Amino acid sequence: MGLFFHIGRYASFMGSVLRRPEQGAVFRKLLVEEMNAIGLQSLGIVALLSVFMGAVICIQTAHQIGGWIPVYTIGFTVRQTMILEFSPTLIPVILAGKVGSNIASQLGTMRVTEQIDALEIMGVNSAGYLVLPKMIAALTCIPFLVILSMALGIGAGMWVGVSTGVSSAADFEYGMQIDFNAFDVTYALIKTCVFALIISSVSAYHGYFTSGGALEVGRSSTKAVVYAVVIVMVANLLLTQMLLG
Amino acid sequence: MIEIDNVSKSFGDQIVLRDISAQFHPGKVNFIIGRSGSGKSVLTKCTVGLLEPDQGHVTYDGRNFTEMNRRGRKAVRQEIGMLFQGSALFDSMTVAENVMFPLRMFSDATEAEMRDRAAFCLERVELTHATDKFPSELSGGMQKRVGIARAIAMNPKYLFCDEPNSGLDPQTAIVIDNLIGDLTREFNMTTVVVSHDMNSVMEASDFIHFVHQGQIAWHGPTSEILTAKSEALNEFIFASKIMRELRKTVS
After folding, report:
1. Consecutive H or E run containing A189
2. How close, in Å, is residue A192 to chain B by CA atoms?
3. What is the pLDDT of residues A180-224, one digit of tens each?
4. A10 within domain boundaries
């Protein structure tokens, strides 16, 4: 099916998702569950990756700087890499794999076992009921995960830099503070919010429109991750050009 | 009464329903029977609005469901209960939560009132002992009964059952058939059952619509089915040895 078919169906799907929830209390309960699934249950993987990535960036930068490049560049590079690209882009890409596949497979399974039909028959707006809490949970939790990732990555970089002797704590701190532009963080968070919406909605779209059986649920899950990552990458380029270009 | 008027439905080049008209009577168990692929499930999905007919319309007690807007359809759907072939229970909820779900979404009942209603519905299907179990902990027959309890939770005017006996042993199937019949009469619902199980048809139906090649090839009361003159229907109902024996007995 053509690209325009999917764009049209996605727009229509989003129209259903963004309707007012039928029951506020039910919506709030689902939102808390989704925040737990998307946010809290991703803390471990985000923390682990950020710590190792910050440490590796520190060692690589130290390896590359020669005698004429000041040592504080290590702190500067770790900060800029974590804030501008690693945390706001790579963490959502990783979450597209973890959260996106989970959303797609959950909705796909509900589709093929007629649970979504059951919701529709009852008169429930199934798209809104199932997807809106996931999107809002992603929109609120992923930025927090990204901020945490920035802090942990920079902290780990500093710890590794100091403990391996490639930089003193003072040099690293100086590098961290030099030429700091608060808009970089704003830029990172704008990107993150857009990516969070892309990951949750694209995954939900693929899961919601699954048809067939277990094989198709698996395919939808894979497609959800692939499409979400590709769209995140394209959006990354466009947003970077728009905000920093 | 549910009325289907001149409904047609195609998927690409494949015509599934051809200008079908039918009436489903209130307080009766109306069966839609036919061979696999004959179009009976598509007819049901068009009737409840899970599929849009290409032409024709469906009316619920005179209300044109096909041409209703989203809000109108939502109101009618709250009068519909449906038992799905695979039960379609929500995996993440207990039996009681599944039954309470439509009440939670669409009624102003308090938690205690919802629990009372769920207990009543589960008692009706003899599953009070399974209240706190999850669907995965239940047998196929128990899942069907929970599906029925959920379907009647909102006290529906219309009950749809898609292959209610598929995958069940004959004894459990009879329990489900009888339950559907009893509930239909008790709540005066317009019940529509899709099935190809002749045991079920003979056990529970009041009226029958036989779908063949996308058309209603025969319809009438159950008492007339064994003497019907439709060749396609006779091939369908007398396919098994036991039904051929029954025909001999009747004739």
Report:
1. helix A182-208
2. 30
3. 999 999 999 999 999 999 999 999 999 999 998 899 999 999 999
4. no
C-beta atoms of B89 and A120 within 8 A = no
Percent of chain A with pLDDT over 90: 89
State residue B107's pLDDT score: 87
Q: Do A122 and B85 touch (CB under 8 A)?
A: no
Instruction: Name the strand (E) or helix (H) holding B121.
Output: helix B111-124
Per-10-residue mean pLDDT of chain B, 251 residues long, equals: 92 90 91 88 90 93 90 89 90 93 90 93 88 92 90 91 84 84 89 88 89 89 84 82 76 67
Number of helices (H) and strands (E) in chain B: give both, helices first. 9, 10
> A156 in a domain, yes or no?
yes
CA A225 to chain CA centroid, nearest Å: 12
Domain boundaries, chain B: 1-79+196-251
Rounded CA gap, A201 and A27, in Å? 17
d(CA A206, CA B94): 27
Best residue in B41, B60, B82, B148 to probe A by mutation, most A CBs within 10 Å?
B82
B88 at A interface, C-beta within 8 A: yes
Banded pLDDT at A1 (limits 50, 70, 90):
low
In chain A, residues with a C-beta closer than 8 Å to the C-beta of B91 are 115
CATH class as words, domain B1-79+196-251: alpha beta
For A120, the domain range is 24-244
| Domain-embedded: residue A240 | yes
Question: CB of B176 within 8 A of CB of B145?
Answer: yes
Q: Please report the pLDDT score of residue B251 as a whole number.
A: 67
Domain count, chain A: 1
Q: How confident is the model at residue A65 (pLDDT cuts 50, 70, 90)?
A: confident
Q: Is A17 contained in some domain?
A: no
C-alpha distances in Å from residue B80, one per residue of A22, A121, B154, B161:
18, 7, 8, 11
**Chain A residue with Cα closest to B50:** A117
Residue B155 touches partner A, C-beta closer than 8 Å = no
pTM: 0.88
